[in-house]
Design goal:
Length: about 325
């Protein structure tokens, strides 16, 4: 265990994070008994900065809330100290989202959040216009979390990418996200792999894609979609004019669903990537037909546009 002593010397102290100050405080200082070194946080022109980082065996010392001029002592094991740091990080980022901080354009919160925290995040996200990329993969957001995020996406006008894979919120959760897609015009990339989405969810999502005018990349691999859902998604491609990539590997799609995509590609010239690996019931000849359609020179403009759009972020892959 390590004992940290945090002294609050101003009435407006918030917190200090390991990566820098997320604070509106003029000044605060911490002393770790392990090394007796000091960390100080000095505000300048409304933005705080970390003067020096202090680390000991348990991690980084943090300034915490307390009354002006008082000392707060906390004893932490390595595990509890780590958990406390995550709580401080979460609160700091939520505060930054609420302030619409332009320096916060990316958040990667994998394996950290539950339904209650996602609800807090969603409320802050609804009004934020600066965050562009949000990865919430492999969390426990549940149906309630998906519903909260769906409502936030109906209002949000800044987010371009959201990764929701591995959250297992099923058809009920995807229905809330789908409703948002009918309204949201700024989201470009949506990751939904590994969410136990079946045909009912795929059909609801397909209906939303007929109205959506912003999404370009959609990841749906490792779900429970059969040909019934695939037919609905293929039908949506006849109306959708923005999607360039769809990932549908590891499903239960057979010849009927694959043929529906092959037929849809006769009308849609925007799609350049359709991943159907891990669907062993699809006949090779239909896959060859789809591959030939995707390689058609008529799609060259769409292919170049897709490559250019994501050149500064990542190569083509599932979200």
């Amino acid at each position: 265990e390590r004992e940290c002593v945090c002294v609050r010397v101003s009435t407006s102290v918030s917190f200090v994070l390991a990566s820098g100050c997320v604070s509106e405080s003029p000044r605060c200082s911490c002393v770790c008994r392990a090394s007796m070194n000091t960390v100080s946080c000095q505000a300048k022109q409304g933005k705080a900065r970390l003067a020096r980082t202090l680390k000991d065996d348990a991690g980084t010392c943090f300034c915490v809330r307390g009354e002006a001029g008082t000392v707060k002592r906390e004893r932490f094991s390595a595990t509890s100290f780590h958990s406390w740091m995550e709580e401080v990080e979460f609160a700091g980022r939520i505060a930054a989202l609420q302030r619409n901080d332009s320096s916060l354009d990316t958040i990667d919160w994998t394996e950290k959040l539950d339904e209650s925290k996602v609800g807090v995040l969603a409320a802050a996200l609804a009004k934020n216009t600066k965050l562009r990329f949000l990865d919430l993969s492999d969390n426990k957001i549940g149906v309630a979390g998906a519903i909260a995020l769906g409502k936030a996406l109906q209002e949000n006008t800044g987010l371009e990418l959201i990764g929701l894979g591995g959250n297992r919120f099923g058809d009920e959760g995807i229905a809330a996200i789908a409703n948002a897609l009918k309204i949201n015009t700024t989201l470009k990339e949506l990751g939904l792999w590994g969410n136990s989405i079946g045909d009912p969810g795929a059909i609801v999502l397909a209906d939303a894609l007929k109205f959506n005018v912003g999404l370009t990349r959609l990841g749906l691999s490792d779900n429970k979609i059969t040909s019934a859902g695939a037919v609905a998604l293929a039908d949506a491609l006849k109306a959708n004019t923005t999607l360039t990539e769809i990932y549908l590997s590891q499903q239960q799609i057979d010849a009927e669903g694959a043929q529906a995509f092959a037929d849809a590609l006769k009308f849609n010239v925007r799609l350049v990537t359709l991943e159907l690996g891990g669907n062993p019931s699809i006949p090779p000849e239909i896959l060859s037909q789809i591959a030939a359609s995707l390689a058609d020179p008529a799609r060259t403009a769409a292919r170049l546009a897709a490559a250019s759009e994501w050149a500064d972020t990542k190569p083509a892959r599932e979200i």
